[in-house]
Design a protein that fits this description.
- The chain is an all-alpha fold and 378 residues long.
- The protein has one domain.
- It has 17 helices and no strands.
- Helix 12 packs parallel to helix 17.
């Protein structure tokens, strides 16, 4: 798993090369996003979440670089890796389908090569059929262990909303507060949409496919007795993309601000590292019965000012939750709506699809805004 963490850093570096040619800015952006929580803690665990995030990140990279000439062996390897997602957990089937469909459509639009598309579909279909046969043999049904969940463990309700928002910005569970530099990523979602609206929409759908299913599992909220934030590890991995992009845009235009953000992020992560590596504080989940004063892992001195989304009986009455939700939504909307001076129209458009009519572009803009905004207020 440590090796998987290193590969995440590699993909982060590769993505940063599409956004900037300044290696110094790219280096510090990677340090602030990759050498941090939750990735450090996740890198020595055997849970599937970070591995699923890594595979998904590879799929996003594939989509971003379909214009590159790859050998048959390389495409077979990539297809096999993506097709492995449902083997990790059946809930990742949606993510797998999204990536395979998006990649094959883009390949066909760019090259009109139906053989490449057929080869990718054949590999994925074969993998899925083998998985269904295995599940039928091992569990007596094609869906596998998921059908053993008791009634009421997966349902829609206010607790699902609590978990979904908590995976975003709860002070113990949310990747936005485990590494506050990710707040730049919220702002940069709109910037990436301007840079490349097709990729931004695809990224938004994939992000939702990773985080929403984990909010529906009431029988094991937040991963049960495992590490805090485990259910957002996969989504946190691919969230490095908008965060890196935002940091690089800021670094290009406001280097002093960039330095302050990077320095603050590194110092905070060093403090966190001291807490869990030297002081040996527990990173395990704290249940709904935990007293408010005892809930916070890292922010105990300022915990009343930060969101807490771990008890559905009172979390909708807790003012800081609404304050932080408003802050995050404001950052998101600013990134989409404001004509930002940080954004450069000279950015290189990596995904080259036919120009769309202006009216359709507006429809896509509203759709994209709804997808990502819905992730916060669903």
């Amino acid at each position: 798993m440590v090796f998987c963490g290193a590969i995440i850093i590699f993909f982060g570096w590769e993505f940063s090369s599409f956004f900037s040619k300044n290696k110094r800015l790219r280096f510090w952006a990677i340090i602030a996003t990759g050498i941090s929580l939750p990735l450090i803690a996740a890198s020595n665990q055997i849970y599937l979440d970070m591995l699923s995030g890594l595979i998904t990140l590879a799929g996003l990279y594939w989509f971003f670089t379909t214009y590159e000439k790859r050998s048959k062996i390389q495409e077979i390897l990539l297809s096999t890796i993506i097709a492995f997602l449902p083997w990790l957990h059946i809930k990742l089937s949606v993510t797998c389908i999204l990536i395979i469909l998006a990649v094959t459509i883009k390949i066909y639009l760019e090259s009109k090569n139906s053989r490449r598309v057929l080869r990718i579909f054949l590999i994925t279909s074969t993998s899925c059929i083998l998985l269904l046969l295995y599940n039928h043999y091992a569990f007596g049904n094609i869906l596998g262990i998921v059908t053993f969940y008791k009634k009421g463990m997966i349902e829609l309700g206010k607790e699902n909303i609590m978990i979904l928002l908590g995976l975003l910005f709860d002070q113990n569970q949310g990747f936005l507060l485990l590494n506050p530099v990710n707040l730049i990523g919220i702002l940069a979602i709109g910037w990436i949409y301007r840079f490349n609206h097709i990729f931004a929409l695809f990224w938004g759908l994939v992000f939702l496919s990773l985080i929403i299913p984990n909010a529906l599992h009431l029988g094991c909220p937040y991963g049960g007795t495992s590490f805090s934030g485990r259910f957002e590890w996969g989504a946190a991995v691919i969230f490095i993309i908008p965060t890196i992009y935002g940091l690089l845009i800021i670094g290009k235009n406001r280097e002093k601000t960039f330095r302050l953000i990077i320095a603050g992020g590194i110092l905070l992560q060093l403090y966190f590292f001291y807490q869990y590596a030297i002081r040996d504080i527990s990173l395990y989940n704290r249940g709904a019965a935990t007293w408010i004063e005892n809930y916070s892992i890292f922010y105990s001195s300022i915990h009343p000012w930060l969101p807490m989304l771990y008890n559905s009986e009172w979390e909708f009455k807790y003012l800081p939750n609404y304050t932080w939700l408003a802050l995050i939504c404001t950052l998101l909307l600013i990134g989409f709506i404001r004509t930002n001076r940080f954004y450069s129209k000279a950015s290189i458009l990596i995904v080259k699809l036919p120009n769309l009519p202006q009216r359709l572009n507006r429809v896509i803009f509203v759709w994209g805004l709804g997808i990502v905004y819905g992730c916060l207020i669903i």
